[in-house]
Design goal:
The protein is α+β, with helices and mostly antiparallel strands. The chain is built from 9 helices and 17 strands. Bound molecules: (3R)-3-hydroxy-3-methyl-5-(phosphonooxy)pentanoic acid. The site of (3R)-3-hydroxy-3-methyl-5-(phosphonooxy)pentanoic acid has 16 residues, from α2 and α4. (3R)-3-hydroxy-3-methyl-5-(phosphonooxy)pentanoic acid binds next to α2 and α4.
Length: about 350
């Protein structure tokens, strides 16, 4: 009997040049191009099975069944896969089947790390393979984009650029350098959270209400070109300046949107100021912040231990997590599944000591 089942794994990514705001909210066509690096060792592992016995899609995250909005978002994503299946494989029965999606992160949930990027990248790879679609990397990246914009950047490996594109077909991400091009690290300072933040999907929708968004979008390609050159030349000083500027410009937009999106906590600012001072004193480190209070400190491998040590003693930093540069999303053969279940990869370490 044919089974329609597959498992895939993907890593989250941290944007060095940020994506904020959509030209098309439904298709998640971005207002500006962006650049990121995948985070090694942090993984989402997702199994998808289309099953004739199911009466609706089922979503299990970290062992718990999810209903409501979370399930609806995944179901809408699976509808895209079912639609593609009926278009491409004319006779496929998958187009009429519901699926069971089981997904697990190996990094702590509630740590405020974006899991939608690794989540939808793994889901795109697993669901399309389970459905019998044979998609190439660009097609998988496009598909992942429909679930979460930044997920398209978690499909290719290493350092990744997401082109603006002019439509659904042309907006996808590709690798500009492999993971071994430059041993950069992302040392994440996890900050105590007081309020629940507004999610990025809602955030993109209000980006254009800020009068600063037009200026940010107009100048993003220039910053991206600078970051790309610095990355390819392994010029940390040049990369650091543009990465910090770009993150600050995104937060300037967020802070001046209606409603105001103020993701920073006092400790977020303390970390940003400390890292700027460290850099002035010669440490190769810079900060970038997503839609939350945590600070991602990007640094060279040589600076990583020192950065982690110093971050741990800043008041309000709850934990420090270190990741290297990660590879692409990939299918996991069934035979490998038992050996990876519940086992943490060696690619990151989570330090809970202060
Ligand atoms: O993919 P989304 O919709 O969760 O948006 C991600 C937005 C940021 O993380 C703030 C920036 C980025 O480019 O990843």
């Amino acid at each position: 009997m044919t089974t329609f089942k597959a498992t895939a794994q993907a890593s989250p990514n941290i944007a060095l040049i940020k994506y904020w705001g959509n030209r098309d909210q439904e298709l998640r066509l971005p207002a500006n191009p962006s650049l990121s690096m995948n985070l090694a060792g942090l993984t989402t592992t997702t199994t998808v099975e289309f099953d004739p016995a199911l009466k609706q899609d089922v979503l299990i995250l970290g062992g718990s069944e999810i209903k409501g909005k979370g399930l609806e978002r995944v179901s809408r994503f699976l509808d895209q896969v079912r639609r593609q299946t009926s278009e491409v494989l004319k006779t496929s029965e998958v187009s009429h089947l519901f699926a069971r999606v089981e997904s697990r992160n190996n990094f702590p949930s509630g740590a405020g790390l974006a899991s939608s990027a690794s989540g939808f990248a793994a889901l795109a790879v697993a669901a399309s393979a389970a459905a019998g679609l044979d998609l190439n990397e660009a097609e998988l990246s496009r598909l992942a984009r429909l679930g979460s914009g930044s997920a398209c950047r978690s499909v290719p490996g290493g350092f990744v650029e997401w082109t603006l594109g002019s439509d659904d077909r042309s907006s996808y991400a590709y690798s500009i350098a492999s993971a071994d091009h430059w041993d950069l690290r992302d040392i994440v300072a996890l900050i105590d959270v007081e309020h629940k933040a507004v999610g990025s999907t809602e955030g993109h929708a209000v980006a254009a209400t800020s009068p600063l968004q037009a200026a940010r979008v107009a100048t993003a390609p220039e910053r991206l070109a600078q970051a790309r050159s610095a990355l390819l030349a392994r010029d940390f000083a040049a990369l650091a300046d543009v990465v910090e500027l770009d993150s600050l410009m995104m937060h300037a937009v967020m802070i001046t949107s209606a409603p105001v999106l103020m993701y920073w906590q006092p400790s977020t600012i303390a970390v940003m100021q400390a890292v700027r001072q460290w850099r002035l004193n010669g440490l190769a480190a810079c900060t970038t912040i997503d839609a939350g209070p945590n600070v991602h400190v990007i640094c060279t491998a040589a600076a990583a231990d020192e950065v982690a040590l110093r971050l741990r003693v800043i008041p309000g930093v709850r934990r420090v997590l270190t990741a290297g540069v990660g590879g692409p999303a990939q299918l996991i053969p069934d035979t490998h599944l038992r050996s990876i279940a519940g086992v943490k990869s060696a690619g990151y370490n989570l330090d809970t000591h202060h």
